[in-house]
# Entry
Amino acid sequence: MTVRDVLRGKPARVITVEADTPVMEAVKRLREHQIGAMPVVDDRARMIGLFTERDVVWRLAEKGAAILEEPVRYCMTTPVHFCKPDDSIRDVMWQMTYRRIRHLPVVEDGRLIGMISIGDVVKSRLEELEEEARVLRDMVVAGR
# Structure
């Protein structure tokens, strides 16, 4: 299974946030869309960072509530790690585990085309395992 396979089951639109958006407004957008991360884009819509729930919590611990009024650019992860549509889910699992990240933008030909989360990866892996189990059960039954 590839990242492209997982993206087929997700909405095509990627929710982004502009670098100058106040952190509080960005947090409200995360809540509104029930997501845990958004790519941060500049005025030319180029991805320059990733804004995550974890970024907010860590910056709150460092600087207190004042961070909520600052622009997202001061509360984002850089550099951005990403994956490609033809990457295997196993490779994405490895990258997320090794880098300790839960969200990866999906980039094709330099263009942001989607987002994949650890939840998406786990769901796809469970579906794979269920299919493998079904095939094995069918083989056992057919062998009788």
